[in-house]
Amino acid sequence: MMMTDLYETQRAMRGMRQAAIQRGVVAILDVGTSKIACLILKFDGEEIDRSEGIGTLRGQSSFRVIGAATTRSRGVELGESCALAETERAIRTAVQAAQKMANVRVDHCIACIAGGQPRSYGLAGAAEIEGDQVTEQDIARVLSASDVPDYGTDREILHAQPVNFAVDHRSGLIDPRGQIGNKLACDLHMLTVDRIVLQNLIYCIKRCDLELAGLASSAYVAGVASLVEDEQELGAACIDMGGGATGISIFIKKHMIYADSVRLGGDHITQDIAKGLQVPITAAERMKTFHGGVVATGMDDRDLIEIGGDTGDWEKDRRTVTRSELIGIMRPRVEEILEDVRASLDAAGFEHLPSQQIVLTGGASQIPGLDTLAPRILGQQVRIGRPLRIQGLPQAATGAAFASAVGLALFAAHPQDEWWDFDISGDRYPARSFRRAVKWLKDNW
Length: 445
Description:
Blueprint: H1 3-23, E1 25-31, E2 35-48, E3 60-72, E4 76-77, E5 80-81, H2 84-102, E6 108-113, E7 119-128, H3 136-144, E8 155-167, E9 170-173, E10 183-194, H4 195-207, E11 211-217, H5 218-226, H6 229-234, E12 236-241, E13 246-252, E14 255-262, H7 266-277, H8 281-291, E15 304-306, H9 314-317, E16 320-322, H10 323-347, E17 357-361, H11 370-378, E18 382-384, H12 403-413, H13 437-444
Parallel strand pairs: 1-6, 6-11, 12-17, 17-18
Antiparallel strand pairs: 1-2, 2-3, 4-5, 7-10, 8-9, 8-10, 12-13, 13-14, 15-16
Helix pairs in contact: 2-4, 5-12, 7-8, 7-10, 10-11
């Protein structure tokens, strides 16, 4: 897909989102490795203007959740769909259950993607201001002058958000419109993902008779839902610990400036338990949920857990294991995930931010003792985060496992400006020179 095609596709999706919101309902779809969550949002058409400039969350359409459903995910591994027919059936099941609860039919959905090996790039562009004051056309021209890297034909741009403007030598502007000056410069954060992974997800959604009205990175939307305003402003990382992948997003000045993912998650911990104790995956998942942990105490040596089973072998089915042994299986994998996250944050230059707050969210962040273990590996400023409350969300869907779904609902109601929201003429798509986000992060913040 050429840049022009991508630009037009993203613009078309923006138009569909607008139409869906005016019609009143839209589905939110979080296709994960362990579960598929669907929320149905009802919009009342009022725009509450909370915008603070370009790139920030714009005027929010007020909404409430009128339907919610989850189903066990099938055909998804490492946050990527690998068995399309299975994934399609699971999506259809979740959407139909949510529609039944909402008693409404939905044609449009907004989805998020956890896999696809996201890559972040920091772009910069500059252009002369044509009149006395900065106009929307000047912003479009500066975006088209950005030095887009040669990210490869097998990848697709998922986000391209302006994160900082400068007029002459005045930097740090959120909205340059109306500013007087001669030269406008812009920093842009671009995120690309594997094209095949994206196409597989789009194919599954289309097969479920849904029109795609938006796509987002699940690491990004988890950050939108889990980081409080001060954290987004001063600098923080959101670590979304899912089933098959762990998403990483870094925010500052209310913008995402870096995203990555580690291809390990809660399901890998479950598989370790299943292999280590020779039990089925379902039994391992139950043990992890009810008895799991990562920090052992003296009490845990005496705490016996019945493994259970239905093999028919009485001796095998009556086995017990101490909680210490279970923790001994879980802890190395959790440490591995956190160490990979630490390596990604180091590569991103996270230590250069004024604040080093780290927020853990996602289903796997619920493991007892993680709040003690994580600071040893990631640094002292770590907290376990829950997503923001949104109106109408059932109690069962308010936990950390629903951070991406809640963030996606917020993203649907008020997406950030991306370069396709500006009128860039076809012959002026950004030039392509190479520059990675890591160096850009250090230079710009």
